[in-house]
């Protein structure tokens, strides 16, 4: 039936025994009232786009009046005339991927390729920091303002400015992948001003190393102290040492070959071992039946935590403000003091980028100054006139 819809018609409209009935408006083509057998009433609009018949619900009665629904229908028809598809856009809105969907795909396709430690760390970032704020937001709607608010909340409200920087780095990577997946065309996390970070550089002196060796020898826990010794002797990362398996070592050749899945850079890394490291490993192997060099409580799993032992030996040795990772920096500083070049240090530590090793360049100041003094003395000694600098 077709006639001009009025409030009186809408109030009286009934579907009777039929599942639903449409009361079509004769003023706006395609505009109608739909009534179900249970008495539910809603305004709809039928239209055609690209040869396809569409029906979109405008709203329910009495939430929408006849006049308001008719004006909305007119506006939609104007959009259709301009090439829009209101029903398609509404469907896209419902099905558009959210940040929660982004996390799901990111974790399965990207994060799964990272080390267990990185997986655990980034999972915590998403679970505790990103998703509580943004999970329901559509990826295409994420703006720079969203990202800045997230960064600010972690920095200020939680008081963890460095963590805030790491979270934004992870989120930026996820949004870069969203661009690749054609979920959006730009990355709003690019260019976010990060909190200042001061690189912490702590090198153990030879005296501290001597005291540490004494404390390690006196400590009752041998597995974790041996792990710390291997860290000192190789400059390897904690995860590389704790997850090391015997099949990575050729003790006759004195070489530790880390497979790509074992290293931070995801590249095979071949580490020549000093005689002291080989001797340490031979001693460990004599009483070790696990596939892991440093087994945990179960021989089927690696040791996961040496922090308590580290803190204990540092306290006994009187070493303040030192982290386990500082053993890696100390390894590099000893190499510098004995004349090793930056490329050699980078190769020993498994660096893939020159700028990573460049952080140790300032350690050359004293050796270089000494070399400059030697040149100065030679020049002054060979001079016939006044010495340079006089």
From TrEMBL:
<dbReference type="InterPro" id="IPR011010">
    <property type="entry name" value="DNA_brk_join_enz"/>
</dbReference>
<dbReference type="GO" id="GO:0006310">
    <property type="term" value="P:DNA recombination"/>
</dbReference>
<dbReference type="InterPro" id="IPR025166">
    <property type="entry name" value="Integrase_DNA_bind_dom"/>
</dbReference>
<dbReference type="InterPro" id="IPR002104">
    <property type="entry name" value="Integrase_catalytic"/>
</dbReference>
<keyword id="KW-0238">DNA-binding</keyword>
<dbReference type="GO" id="GO:0003677">
    <property type="term" value="F:DNA binding"/>
</dbReference>
<dbReference type="InterPro" id="IPR010998">
    <property type="entry name" value="Integrase_recombinase_N"/>
</dbReference>
<dbReference type="Pfam" id="PF13356">
    <property type="entry name" value="Arm-DNA-bind_3"/>
</dbReference>
<dbReference type="GO" id="GO:0015074">
    <property type="term" value="P:DNA integration"/>
</dbReference>
<feature type="domain" description="Tyr recombinase">
    <location>
        <begin position="199"/>
        <end position="373"/>
    </location>
</feature>
<comment type="similarity">
    <text>Belongs to the 'phage' integrase family.</text>
</comment>
<dbReference type="InterPro" id="IPR050808">
    <property type="entry name" value="Phage_Integrase"/>
</dbReference>
<dbReference type="InterPro" id="IPR038488">
    <property type="entry name" value="Integrase_DNA-bd_sf"/>
</dbReference>
<dbReference type="InterPro" id="IPR013762">
    <property type="entry name" value="Integrase-like_cat_sf"/>
</dbReference>
<keyword id="KW-0233">DNA recombination</keyword>
<keyword id="KW-0229">DNA integration</keyword>
<dbReference type="Pfam" id="PF00589">
    <property type="entry name" value="Phage_integrase"/>
</dbReference>
<protein>
    <submittedName>
        <fullName>Site-specific recombinase XerD</fullName>
    </submittedName>
</protein>
């Amino acid at each position: 039936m077709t006639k001009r819809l009025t409030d009186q018609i809408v109030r009286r409209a009934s579907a009777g025994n039929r599942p639903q009935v449409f009361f079509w408006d004769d003023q706006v083509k395609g505009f109608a009232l739909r009534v179900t057998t249970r008495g539910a009433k809603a305004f709809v609009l039928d239209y055609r786009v690209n040869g396809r018949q569409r029906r979109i619900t405008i709203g329910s009665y009495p939430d929408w009046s006849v006049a308001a629904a008719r004006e909305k229908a007119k506006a939609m028809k104007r959009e259709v005339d301009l090439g829009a598809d209101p029903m398609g856009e509404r469907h896209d809105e419902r099905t558009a991927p959210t940040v929660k969907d982004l996390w799901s795909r990111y974790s399965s396709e990207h994060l799964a390729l990272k080390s267990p430690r990185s997986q655990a760390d980034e999972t915590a970032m998403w679970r505790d920091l990103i998703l509580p704020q943004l999970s329901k937001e559509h990826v295409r709607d994420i703006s720079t303002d969203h990202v800045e608010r997230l960064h600010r909340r972690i920095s200020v409200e939680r008081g963890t400015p460095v963590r805030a920087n790491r979270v934004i780095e992870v989120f930026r990577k996820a949004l870069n992948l969203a661009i690749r997946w054609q979920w959006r065309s730009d990355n709003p996390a690019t260019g976010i001003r990060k909190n200042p970070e001061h690189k912490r550089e702590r090198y153990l002196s030879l005296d501290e190393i001597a005291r540490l060796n004494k404390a390690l020898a006196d400590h009752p826990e041998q597995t974790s102290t041996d792990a710390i010794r291997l860290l000192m002797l190789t400059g390897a990362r904690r995860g590389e040492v704790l997850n090391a398996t015997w099949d990575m070592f050729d003790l006759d050749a004195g070489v530790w070959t880390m497979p790509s899945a074992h290293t931070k850079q995801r590249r095979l890394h071949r580490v020549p071992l000093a005689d002291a490291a080989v001797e340490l490993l031979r001693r460990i192997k004599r009483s070790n039946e696990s596939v892991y060099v440093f087994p945990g409580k179960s021989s089927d799993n690696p040791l996961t935590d040496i922090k308590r032992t580290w803190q204990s030996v540092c306290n006994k040795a009187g070493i303040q403000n030192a982290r386990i990772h500082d053993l890696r920096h100390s390894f590099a500083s000893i190499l510098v003091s004995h004349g090793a070049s930056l490329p050699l240090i980078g190769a020993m530590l498994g660096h893939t980028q020159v700028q990573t090793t460049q952080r140790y360049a300032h350690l050359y100041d004293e050796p270089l100054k000494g070399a400059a003094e030697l040149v100065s003395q030679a020049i002054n000694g060979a001079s016939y006139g006044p010495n340079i600098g006089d």
